[in-house]
Each structure stands twice: as structure tokens, then as C-alpha cells.
Amino acid sequence: QVQLIESGGGLVQAGGSLRLSCAASGRTFSPYAMGWFRQVPGKEREFVAFTGWSSGLTYYADSVKGRFTISRDIAKNTVYLQMNSLKPEDTAVYYCAAAGGVRDYSALFVARGYDYWGQGTQVTVSL
Predict the structure, then answer these.
(1) What single DSSP character describes residue 43?
(2) What is the pLDDT of residue 44?
(3) Mean of pLDDT values over 37-56
(4) Residue 50 pLDDT > 80, yes or no?
(5) Region 70-83 average pLDDT
(6) d(Cα 83, Cα 90) in Å, to the nearest integer?
């Protein structure tokens, strides 16, 4: 049983920073990739960033490029999302996701490309 446990959301003023964490648990689980998505009410889950677990390669949505950084700690099976220069439009529930097996990287830009999901953490950016 794989579980993704997120932490680090909260309320921050525009221009501020937050760091989200997501720890993957499960005996012998080693993801192929881990990513972050976000969702606001009435809209589809939106890709934010992902990292290849072995490669360390990172990919970002244009809307967060240059402001957000995804990183991983392999020893801790944990992925992070450092969010700087936050804007009110970044307000959403942020979800951590993990892909358990090999797949084309193009599949990892959409939610259906992932096998496991965290419970979500709210990020609210005020003016």
C-alpha cells in the first residue's frame, strides 16, 4: 500500500514563499517520477511540475516557471515544491502524485499519468 503524505500548505501574502513536502511510504516503493498538481473548485486538476526520480530531470508549467522549484530526497522518498513570488492566482489545493512504473515522460504532464495521489493541501495567497 503506497501512501503520499503532504504537508506545508497555508496562508501567505502575495510575494511570499511556501514549501510543500510529500513523503511516499510503502514497503520497497521507489517511484518512477513524482509531481505536483493543483486544483481550484470547478476546474480540472492542473499540472504544476514533476521530476524524474532517477534522472532528476524537472519540468514545469509555464505559469510557475522561474518561481517554483521541485526537488527530491531519494533517501527520504520525499518530493518538495518550493514556491516563491506567490501570486493570488496560485491559490489552490495542491496535490502530490507518484508514477509507479516506467512510462513516457509526455504522460506525466497530465493527471491520468500518475498512479498514486496525496490528500491535498490548501495554499491560499492573499493580496
Answers:
(1) S
(2) 96
(3) 97
(4) yes
(5) 96
(6) 9
Distance CA 80, CA 72 (A): 6
> With left for phi above 0 and alpha for psi between -120 and 50, is residue 49 left, alpha or beta?
beta
45-70 b/e with 16+ CB inside 10 Å = b? bbbbbbbbbeeeeebbbeebeeebbb
Question: At CA 66, angle to CA 62 and CA 67, rounded to 5?
Answer: 100
Reduced 3-state DSSP string for 85-111:
CCCHHHCEEEEEEEECCCCCHHHHHCH
Question: Mean of the per-residue pLDDT values for the chain?
Answer: 96
Asked if 105 and 9 touch (Cβ cutoff 8 Å), the reply is: no
CA distance 51 to 61: 12
CA gap 16, 36 in Å, rounded: 19
89's grid cell: 492566482
16 Cβ contact partners less than 8 Å away, ≥ 6 residues apart: 86, 125
**Band of pLDDT at residue 23, cut at 50, 70 and 90:** very high
